[in-house]
Amino acid sequence: MKKKTVIASALFSLFILAFAAIIVASFSGSNLIVADSKIDFNTTPPIPNPNPSVLALNEAFMEVANKVTPTIVYIEVTNGDQGKKKQSPDGQNPFEFFFGPDFDFGEQMPMRGSGSGVIISSDGYIITNNHVVENASDAGIKVTLTDKREFHAKLVGTDPTTDIAVIKIDATDLPVASVGNSDNVHVGQWVIAIGNPLGLNYTVTTGIVSALGRNLPVNDNRYAIANFIQTDAAINPGNSGGALVDVYGSVIGINSAIKSNTGYFTGYGFAIPMNIAKSVASDLIATGKVSRGYIGISIKDVDGKEARGLGLERTRGVLIQEVQENGAGYEAGLKTGDVILKVDGNEVNASNQLQTIISQKSPGDKVELEIFRNGSTMNFNVTLKPRADVEERLISENQPRNQDTELNSKSIESIGLEVSDMTGSMRKSFDISNGILVKDVKNFSESFERGLRPGMVILEAEKEKLDNVEDFMSVINSKNKGDVIILKVMDSNKNIRIVAVEI
């Protein structure tokens, strides 16, 4: 080794020793932690004897989770959209504006989604949500059990009206969920939600029943039956089709929806009552479809102004807005403006409550309705019919009409409405023989707040047919300030409804 190299090495070693000495000196006043220091952890609980009620609830939750979780499945769905051209949500090709209508930028890849399901038979029938499996491709439904076994499921049937579907896997001796009676559910009782939210398999959350009979517009089906159990048990995407159970471990609802601005849980979860799900599942398993009876009417809840205008002593019942020609209600003698107070002796005060009762009956079944009409109550026996799928006749809001400048029109400041007579061709476009046209509605006026809009037609006022504006003015002038007038109106889609307007 060269002399210079030896000297350099010696100097470097001296530098290292000097630096180490400085570091040790800097910490000479500190107590160093040594490896054999020992900590005695406190293992005595601060509450040695918890309240027995709390212990019992804790054990109940654990027992329910242990018993019910094996009856819940994870569902993975591959949709059937492979090969379709990509489009924007409104159905349009977003590049067409720039590149023309023949522009094609490739095929859409299959999409995947997931949800939950509840085993209802030992041989593999499973209840889930329609929206979980409705777009599944052939052989596109995969089911995973808690023991990790995987199966391909076949679709037995779906019911968009209730958002319930049934699938089937080829298995035996499966654990089966216990079905509860959702009619016995009460606001405030403890509930447990079990499912597969956000890809976190077999998650258990707890809460209470926050409300019953919630009516949510969860889809565009005009016949949708929305009568949800609301809960604050955390429900997130992926929980759909899972179980909402009580402290007995009985399934009282099928988790279906959340109300959120973000798409994630914000305190409001909703489940389909189990009695509805059970009835639908039974039909789907037996026949592959649901056979449901219909009265053939359009209905809404009665509000305070409508109750006053119709002469009810208090706000109650369900208002008939339209009666379908040749439907069961039509044949029984029901009329627009009638108020249904009871079904088979049981009071009804919400439209979804009435829908739920009728939905569990079949075509040919008879129901007795107590009706309020013209200040009196009367009973009607209605034999339910199957739904007739009639093609909807639509008229665009913007479709030009034959407007005659000589038509009489009138502005009615007391209700914020401008109306005019109608020509024969205008009435023909609505398939009506009488009525007056709503030309304008003052923003935030009484008429505006009650839902009247330009383009609607007022057919009747106080059950009197209107042939012209003067007929309407006669009815208006017979009223005093604060009185409520009942109008029968038709919108541009030819839907008829009742509107109560305060003078």
Mind explaining what this structure looks like?
- About 9% of the residues have low confidence.
- 21% of the residues lie in helices and 31% in strands.
- The strands form 4 sheets. The chain has a 7-stranded antiparallel beta sheet. Strands 21, 22, 23, 24, 25, 26 and 27 form a 7-stranded antiparallel beta sheet that branches.
- It has 4 domains: 87 residues, Thrombin, subunit H (Beta Barrel); 110 residues, Thrombin, subunit H, CATH 2.40.10; 87 residues, Pdz3 Domain; 94 residues, Pdz3 Domain (Roll).
- The protein has 11 helices and 27 strands.
- The longest helix is centred in the first third of the chain and has 24 residues.
- Strand 21 and strand 22 form a beta hairpin.
- It has 503 residues and is of the alpha+beta class.
- The chain is elongated and about 110 Å long.
